[in-house]
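Q: Could you fold this chain for me?
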Amino acid sequence: RWEFPISIESMKHYTCLEALELRHTSEHLVCFPLGVFPNLRTLWLVNCEGLEKVYIPEGIEDGSLASLCDLSIGSCHALEMIGKETGRGEATTELPAPNLTALSIKKCGRVKPVVVE
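A: Sure. Below is the predicted structure, expressed as structure tokens.
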């Protein structure tokens, strides 16, 4: 089990990344941090069997998802949470993505409802 394979701090250097699609990661990818790629417009996570959490890590600034327009998550059966860490291991289901125009969450039966702000 592992989290995203590079450190959150080093991800901030991927300023040209606008689209990312991860498929069939089996049980290896457990957590995916949002808000660390400053210009990410499109994110698709499909058939990530071990994925439990898609989250904005504590310490990432509000507005970090300003570029995100399209978020699609499908067939991630272990996924329980999409939202923002608030500290002490707690999280909200709020997703501060003001320019999100397309949101699709399919076949993720364990995930809690998401509130897009």
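A (continued): The longest helix spans residues 8-11.
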